[in-house]
Design goal:
The chain is an alpha+beta fold and 165 residues long. It is built from three helices and six strands; from the N terminus they run βαββαβββα. The chain starts with 14 loop residues before the first strand and ends in a 26-residue tail after the last helix.
Length: 165
């Protein structure tokens, strides 16, 4: 069975996306790794037309509601760039942890292959997914209120530019 993909016919529409670290390993929550993700998304916003409507960074995955002129290409570039930077960070801060991500054909496999994209065609579905994203840290009991999680579009002080819905 093939993994779900973003249709080329709808690659410029809003999508709910999940990027998951291989085997759900807990590696994103330390040594400024969320900054690496944020800087990469900010670069995509500035140079690739990425619009982010909601997001959350968790310890082993991220969720986005996003669109871009070519969201397929943006996600591909994001998932190529971030492993190099995160694995450099892991190598320098936690030697040996990079062994969790063995190289295949000379490349690290850091992210799970699929993004589980969900095309957003209706306002109520968009609101449901944004609510799901914002309450993810609450469900995990990291915070009591969504706006208290720094790495979420629910937080008014978070670092990523959020597009109006």
């Amino acid at each position: 069975m093939s993994s779900p993909r973003i249709s080329k016919d709808f690659c410029h529409w809003h999508h709910f996306i999940t990027c998951t670290v291989q085997h759900w390993f807990y590696v994103l929550d330390r040594h400024s790794r969320w900054n690496i993700l944020a800087e990469s998304l900010q670069y995509c916003q500035k140079h690739k037309g990425l619009e982010i409507f909601a997001y959350v960074f968790m310890i082993n995955h991220i969720h986005l509601i996003a669109r871009a002129p070519d969201l397929i290409r943006v996600l591909c570039d994001f998932k190529k760039f971030t492993p190099r930077e995160i694995l450099k960070n892991i190598t320098s801060t936690e030697p040996g942890v990079d062994d969790l991500f063995p190289k295949r054909n000379g490349k690290y496999k850091f992210w799970e292959e699929t993004n589980f994209p969900k095309l957003i065609e209706a306002e109520d579905f968009l609101e449901q997914k944004a609510d799901y994203i914002h309450h993810n840290p609450v469900r995990k009991q990291y915070v009591l209120e969504p706006q208290r999680w720094y790495w979420s579009s629910a937080n008014p002080h978070q670092p990523i530019r959020i597009a109006g819905i």
